[in-house]
Specification:
InterPro entries: DUF427, DUF427_sf. The protein is built from no helices and 15 strands. By secondary structure, it is mostly beta strands. The protein has a seven-stranded antiparallel β-sheet, with no helix packed on it. Strands 4-3-11-12 form a four-stranded antiparallel β-sheet, with no helix packed on it. A hairpin with a 2-residue loop joins strand 8 and strand 9. The relative contact order is 0.23.
Length: 153
């Protein structure tokens, strides 16, 4: 398995960058395999841990769309989904902005709302604060947004 290189979240770009992921991504919840994918992308934005976008064809669990949405100035309108046993656990963009068309319909899971998320053989810890979905891995350096006092930078 390829190791994760050292990255500083403060050097990630704004607007965010989109890149393919070389490592296998695994998510488990309630003892079940939710996804196992070698076709993920990640979005890198200044002061954020990466968010991992997975093709819907690689999602093994049932996702139910829920009402409500949020707006990202870079990616567009996000629509949320529930895993059967976990509310608000994932979201997708179905009408991406042009820059992010590659990941239209891909699913993102909040690391804080699933039991396990993995990038290769590295177990993820959730980015602080449930507003952000970043997957924190030990190779990340710099100040990651989400901790108290960081929401407005």
């Amino acid at each position: 398995m390829k190791s994760l290189p050292i990255e500083n979240v403060q050097s990630y770009s704004r607007p965010p960058a989109l890149e393919s992921v070389e490592q296998e991504i695994i998510v488990r919840h309630d003892g079940e395999l939710v996804t196992k994918s070698n076709r993920a992308y990640r979005v890198l934005e200044t002061h954020h841990a990466a968010s991992y976008y997975l093709p819907v064809e690689d999602i093994l669990a049932t996702l139910n769309p829920v009402s409500g949405n949020t707006f990202c100035e870079w990616k567009g309108v996000a629509q949320y989904c529930d895993l059967i046993t976990q509310q608000g656990s994932a979201w997708t963009y179905k009408n991406q902005t042009e820059t992010f068309k590659t990941i239209a319909g891909y699913i993102v899971f909040f690391a804080s709302k699933v039991d396990e998320a993995w990038v290769g053989d590295v177990r993820v810890i959730p980015q602080p604060d449930d507003f952000y979905s970043g997957w924190v891995t030990p190779n990340l350096e710099g100040k990651i947004k989400g901790a108290p006092g960081t929401n407005n930078w």
